Amino acid sequence: MRPEILLIEPMMAPFEASLDENYHVHRLFEAQDRTAFLADIAPRIRAIATGGATGASNDLVDGLPALEIIAINGIGTDAVDLNRARARKIRVTTTPDVLTDDVADLGMGLLIATARQLCAGDRFVRAGRWANREALPLARKVSGKKLGILGMGRIGRAIARRAQGFDLRISYTDIRAFDDLDYRYEPELEALARDSDFLIVAAAGGPQSRGLVGASVLNALGPEGILVNVARGSVVDEQALVSALVEGRLGGAGLDVFADEPNVPEALWTLDTVVLQPHRASATIETRIAMGELVLANLAAHFAGQEPKTPVV
């Protein structure tokens, strides 16, 4: 019999078709009554396919006694309890590398869009205000400024490479300095923010980084500074961020992720100093195809008795 798997959120149609061809797929996102739906199938579910932000809660995992693997369509593991997975010998896989370029591209895009007021300018033209001879405030220059990066993993490094093309002076902070990097290492996040014009958050989510960018860091970045977050909403104290932007203690923000997605604080909606995206850093056709292929490859390897392609646990 085909292994039974739980698909927590939709994938691209060709990948769902492939899953249907090889597995007995139960789509949790289509269930009207999730509790009743799971009660009927829980004993038979051997795999979960899910997104990085959605993950799989402990309650869900604990209710699936036959679960063998959680295949994450993304790189974030903060929404899966890895220690609990290890204890139960449940494999956990992600889709690393294939989305690095897209996330780094969007990080730089958000920085440029925020500093140069691209979205505000677009709204300005569409509203007929340019034709009425109104004027926008002057924007901020990007090239040659000081960029701080929080988190120097794959994505942080890809952002730094792109930033070099804009002659940005790059510094970073992480749990340690990396010998293979020539950028300046600053061990204290607040000090990094104080010495930066722009701060891009590229750190992993999870308990260890929750609220890491708080009021003191935002104040250090200052009323001319810009924060960009392409990591996880949990890394930034969102209430402190909203207050800093509304009160003018922070110059601007480019945000792809939020604390309670898809709910975005309404106070941000009308601020021309803020550029908002619906958590879509990896949302290109090319990258979503590569991610989907890797999810399928991890599941296929596991059920063939082989090591998954990109295991975390």
List the helices and strands and how they pair.
Layout: E1 4-7, H1 13-22, E2 24-27, H2 34-41, E3 45-51, H3 58-62, E4 69-73, H4 82-87, E5 91-93, H5 100-115, H6 118-126, E6 146-150, H7 154-164, E7 169-173, E8 184-185, H8 189-194, E9 198-201, H9 215-221, E10 226-229, H10 238-246, E11 252-255, E12 274-276, H11 285-303
Parallel strand pairs: 1-2, 1-3, 3-4, 4-5, 6-7, 6-9, 7-8, 9-10, 10-11, 11-12
Helix pairs in contact: 5-7
Structural key phrases:
11 helices, 313 residues, alpha/beta, seven-stranded parallel sheet, five-stranded parallel sheet, single chain, globular
Describe this entry's structure for a reader.
By secondary structure, the protein is α/β, with parallel strands linked by helices. The protein contains 11 helices and 12 strands. The strands form 2 sheets. It has a 7-stranded parallel sheet with strand order 8-7-6-9-10-11-12. Strands 2-1-3-4-5 form a 5-stranded parallel sheet. α3 links the parallel β3 and β4 (69-73). α5 (100-115) packs across α7 (154-164). The protein starts with a strand and ends in a 10-residue tail after the last helix. The model has no long low-confidence stretch (mean pLDDT 97).
